Structures are given as structure tokens and as C-alpha cells.
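Good morning,

Attaching, inline, the C-alpha cells for the sequence recovery test we're adding to the shared suite. The designed sequence is right after.
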């Protein structure tokens, strides 16, 4: 068992581990437990009923949060010519083609949060799959990061578009803001995230899609959400 800090043990006392909280209570509480010296990220963790062994049940895509995530997102774009210029004008942090592929391969360059590519670049960057894939950085049509609309896509990720994908246990982990956000901003982001994830339910999943929902700050304990009340807000 990992040892927890004194600070963590103190804030954990604020949370009733047997209780399922209403969304307003949970947001108030998660901010109270975010007592680190930096502006902690608030995350929504969802356990789903997908069978990860079945590829058609994987969830991968992007969602857009009304108030963004509060994080400055570094965007890299693989593109040439006019599309490279479009990406630069939209505010991409890094733009290139073979030169960027080489930088990633030979120098281990990974100082970015999102990678976008035009379709014609996929042949060039295919060999980066073993490097970018395990880190969730490989451009993919499913996540909307392989596109001709590079300028608009760069702007969306800069504003708060978030890529989501189920891990090997069928769970989703979604940043919904920072400790410095208002309660209303966090609530609106959380409800919007739930609504968009529900719309991604794979057709092969029968019955209840989301089984459990928890909110937590970077350094704080998990706070269980009352799923019945939460999902009723989205009906």
C-alpha cells in the first residue's frame, strides 16, 4: 500500500467514503480537498461497462468543454505547404513534416499535448506509432486529429477540446478544470462531459453504460457521485 502524505490524510477526513454525493456537494468538496500549493486539476473518472477485449466497444474521440480545462495545451501539427501555414496562423506550437518526425525519433522530442496531422502525412508519420501510440499522442481519424481542417482543429484544442479514450480497464479519465474555476464552471464542464460521453456509448454495450463516477483533484481523494441523480440531470 502506498503511503499518503499528512496533507492527504487530513483532507480525506472531509470525504465520507460510503456516501454518493450530489454534483453540487461533490464540486464544493473537491475544491476543499484541493489544498496543494499549485492550482490543482479537477478530474472526472468514469467506470464503464464496456468489454475492452472487444475492439468495437472501445471509446475514443474528443469532447469540448464549455469553459476549457484551464491548461495551456501545446499542439504539434504534421503538415506541409498551405496547411502548415494554416496551422501556424491558428496558433500551433510546432509545425513540420519529416523534420518533426526525425526530431521525435532521434531526439525523443515529446514536449506537446496533442498531435494533429493532415491525411497525406500519415504515410510519413506511420513509423512513429510505437513512440506516440502508447502515450496517446498518435493522430487518429477516430479522435479527429487526422483532418484537413487543421486550423480549426488547432483552435478547438487550444480552447479546451479534450481527447478521451478508455483505458485497459474500461475507464475514462477527463480533466474538467482547475481548482481556481468557479463552482458553476466546474459543474457545467462536468455535466457537459457526461452528456458527450453518453453519446459515445458503443452500440455493442447493453444496459447501463456508465457504472460509476468519481471526481478528484490532482492530489486529493476520490469523491463518489450519485449516478442516479447525475444521469437524471442529463435527461
Amino acid at each position: 500500500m502506498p503511503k499518503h502524505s499528512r496533507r492527504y490524510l487530513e483532507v480525506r477526513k472531509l470525504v465520507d467514503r460510503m456516501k454518493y454525493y450530489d454534483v453540487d456537494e461533490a464540486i464544493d468538496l473537491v475544491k476543499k480537498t484541493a489544498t496543494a500549493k499549485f492550482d490543482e486539476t479537477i478530474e472526472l473518472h468514469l467506470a464503464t461497462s464496456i468489454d475492452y477485449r472487444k475492439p468495437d466497444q472501445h471509446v475514443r474521440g474528443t469532447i469540448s468543454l464549455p469553459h476549457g480545462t484551464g491548461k495551456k495545451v501545446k499542439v504539434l501539427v504534421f503538415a506541409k505547404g498551405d496547411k502548415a501555414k494554416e496551422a501556424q496562423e491558428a496558433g500551433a506550437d510546432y509545425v513540420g513534416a519529416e523534420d518533426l518526425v526525425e526530431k521525435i525519433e532521434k531526439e525523443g522530442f515529446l514536449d506537446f499535448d496533442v498531435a494533429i496531422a493532415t491525411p497525406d502525412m500519415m504515410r510519413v508519420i506511420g513509423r512513429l506509432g510505437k513512440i506516440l501510440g502508447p502515450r496517446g499522442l498518435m493522430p487518429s481519424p477516430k479522435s479527429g486529429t487526422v483532418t484537413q481542417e487543421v486550423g480549426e482543429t488547432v483552435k478547438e484544442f487550444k480552447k479546451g477540446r479534450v481527447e478521451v479514450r478508455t483505458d485497459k480497464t474500461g475507464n475514462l479519465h477527463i480533466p474538467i478544470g482547475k481548482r481556481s474555476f468557479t463552482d458553476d464552471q466546474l459543474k457545467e464542464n462536468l455535466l457537459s462531459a457526461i452528456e458527450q460521453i453518453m453519446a459515445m456509448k458503443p452500440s455493442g454495450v447493453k444496459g447501463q453504460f456508465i457504472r460509476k463516477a468519481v471526481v478528484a483533484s490532482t492530489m486529493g481523494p476520490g469523491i463518489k457521485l450519485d449516478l442516479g441523480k447525475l444521469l437524471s440531470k442529463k435527461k
